[in-house]
Specification:
By secondary structure, the chain is an alpha+beta fold. Helices cover about 20% and strands about 45% of the residues. The protein has 4 helices and 14 strands. The chain has helices at about 15-25, 45-50, 110-115, 180-199; strands at about 5, 10, 25-35, 35-45, 60-65, 65-80, 85-90, 100-110, 120, 125-130, 140-145, 150-155, 165, 170-175. Strands 1-5-6-7-3-4-2 form a 7-stranded mixed sheet. The termini are far apart.
């Protein structure tokens, strides 16, 4: 998995300090973990773009002076109007200690059902998994090529090593639906047939 480095500037915890950081074009952040003290800092909004505008997970190396921490982005809050990042949480990774996180799903290929006129429906865009830091995937790839109309891919169909998926096996990931026009045509044909039988 790719590692993105962030240069961090210490800041005082609290709302007023967070507002002051934003006025300077910085994004207030917090770093935490089981074996580290919670640390408030800020970083440039631009440096966060590779973490925010992506469909992949990344490891994050937060650098502050002569210290650094290996983390993952755990949570991010956006401004309700401008959609700019307002606050970011990072969780420190500990070797040998499992972590729970969301992993983006990347659907691969065009399904047979879609090639036959069906409409693909992607139910989930990410999965929550539990794993050791060294096994964190950047994304989960799901091949949909063999899915026909009316079929689906379930969580239980995934074969993922070293990942404990935090979702029931019966959870649908993706399915291919019959096109709406085809359904309407079938209903109209059935109605015509019923009218003919009544005559």
């Amino acid at each position: 998995m790719d590692v993105i480095s962030l240069q961090a500037t210490p800041r005082t915890p609290g709302k007023s300090a967070a507002r002051a950081a934003r006025r300077k074009g910085k994004v207030p952040c917090v770093l935490y973990g089981h074996h580290v003290d919670t640390l408030s800092f800020s970083t440039s909004e631009k440096s966060l773009h590779p973490l925010i505008y992506t469909n992949r997970n990344h490891l994050v190396k937060i650098v502050m002076g002569d210290q650094d921490w290996e983390c993952i982005l755990k949570d991010i809050a956006f401004h309700p109007v401008t959609d700019r990042p307002m606050h970011v949480d990072f969780q420190v990774l500990q070797p040998g200690e499992s972590i729970t996180l969301s992993v983006p799903i990347q659907y691969i290929g065009t399904s047979r059902g879609q090639a036959q006129g069906g409409q693909p429906s992607y139910v989930l865009n990410e999965l929550t998994v539990n794993c050791l830091p060294r096994h964190i995937p950047s994304q989960i790839e799901v091949d949909v090529a063999e899915i026909d109309i009316g079929q689906a891919i379930y969580v239980r169909d995934l074969e993922l090593e070293n990942l404990d998926i935090q979702a029931p096996g019966a959870q649908v990931l993706m399915t291919v639906l019959r096109a709406r026009t085809a359904v309407v045509e079938e209903e109209e044909e059935l109605e015509e047939l019923e009218e003919t039988e009544e005559q």
